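Backbone-to-sequence.
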């Protein structure tokens, strides 16, 4: 029956509408004054505002975005598992389990940040896997950008920095190269 909305959804939808109105990432108070949003990360609202440039209001934009992200996240789940295990069967099985999971479906049914965060986390994992298989510095730069976007989507993404740091420290190269790769990622 449409997009699910909860308390936080109001902040994200209002933030997107205010970005489009030229008020920046802000919210309206009870007396209609505009104040900056400081308790919600801005990336989801920025993406909704970007979709609003094409004429979509933030609520239908979140509906379309989360439908798209549901399909993409199903595929990325399978792809990440395949890349980590080199077993196509496990990749297909993971995608199937993810796709029929009621909590995952429900998560993608609400105007919330989780679907976008999952997408960015999967992209980060794929970039990290690509770097670990073939250490080209551009993979780390892109991983750093994606980690930053994930952090601006959900503050819990600070854990992704720890994940990448540990993975790079456990690498096969010498300590100097490991620390340099962490620095490239963080910059």
């Amino acid at each position: 029956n449409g997009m699910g909305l909860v308390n936080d959804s109001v902040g994200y939808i209002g933030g997107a509408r205010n970005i489009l109105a030229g008020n920046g990432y802000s919210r309206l108070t009870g007396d209609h004054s505009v104040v900056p949003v400081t308790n919600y990360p801005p990336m989801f609202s920025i993406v909704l505002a970007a979709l609003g440039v094409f004429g979509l209001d933030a609520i239908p934009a979140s509906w379309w975005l989360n439908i798209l992200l549901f399909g993409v996240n199903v595929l990325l789940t399978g792809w990440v598992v395949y890349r980590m295990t080199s077993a196509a069967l496990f990749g297909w099985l993971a995608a199937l389990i993810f796709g029929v999971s009621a909590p995952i479906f429900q998560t993608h049914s609400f105007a919330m940040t989780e679907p976008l965060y999952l997408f960015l986390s999967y992209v980060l994992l794929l970039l990290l896997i690509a770097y670990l298989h073939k250490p080209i510095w551009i993979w780390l730069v892109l991983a750093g950008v994606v980690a930053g976007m994930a952090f601006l989507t959900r503050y819990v993404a600070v854990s992704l920095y720890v994940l990448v740091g540990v993975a790079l420290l456990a690498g096969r190269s010498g300590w100097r190269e490991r620390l340099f790769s962490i620095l490239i990622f963080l910059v």
